[in-house]
Amino acid sequence: MNNVKNVFSIKDLENLSGIKAHTIRIWEKRYNILQPMRTDTNIRLYDLVSLQKLLNITLLHDYGYKISKIATYPQEKIPSLVREIISSKTAKSHAISEFKMAMMNFDQELFFNTYNWLIAEKSFKEVFHQVFIPLMNELGLLWQSDTITPAHEHFISYLIKQKLLVNTEKLQVLKQTKVDKVFVLSLPMNEIHELGLMYLNYEILLHGYKTIYLGESMPIENLKDLKKHFDSIIFVSYLTVQPERCQLDGYIQKMSDELVDDTTELWYIGRMIEFIKEEELSDRITLFSSITELVDWI
């Protein structure tokens, strides 16, 4: 398999497993749980098999197994114990670990098998909140630390988007039950991180409202056209990396000038909102610190 990345540093293992590099070294020295490769300068390197083993050991450790005991098990017993634990279908951490392995291996089959295992017992909303949101939060940190490449992030994000689209379509064919307002969802110019906005579209539809999903890189002047068609609009925008911090206040002001009146509101969510001067906003503009907070406000 032509992977983008299949050899990892001990720091990569720390980022992917949540186990500190110092602890991994101790586990290796005392219990021989992993056998790293070594460079000519004696730097530890690990393969995907080692990563999978460490993720499994981490799950067992989280469920009360002592490392000294795990170290005595034959190689094949560790995956067997993991399967026993997850048979209850409550092991969220296992699902996240499996999705990480699917991502690192570019393994669609593992992604779908893990998803199908989850959805057999949970609603899509539960899967998204309990597994996908924590997973995507972790992936953001992994990408920032160079543990994963953009190819990894795009691969797993696209598969999650597929599931979002399938479940969103099921709601779009239903008759809306609330008609007092319409939600228009869009992203600023050059903002391509669409997953969070797509999920909000799903949630708003689930609440019975009509949505107009416009997606990425939507000019403000085009949003203004929607006011010709609907009387009461909430414009929702997810600000992950755009606009840049130096342009943020100007962007918010322009949206306010162009869109806000007695019949419209602006809702913002995403990483960039921490840089918005909330005390300067009108009462028609609302900031949300999380998807859960926004959904509770609907």
Automatic annotation (TrEMBL):
GO terms for molecular function: DNA binding. CDD domains: HTH_MlrA-CarA. SUPFAM superfamilies: Putative DNA-binding domain (SSF46955). One of its GO terms (biological process) is regulation of DNA-templated transcription. It holds the Pfam family MerR_1. It comes from the Bacteria. Residues 8-77 form the HTH merR-type domain. This is MerR family transcriptional regulator. It comes from Flavobacterium bomense.
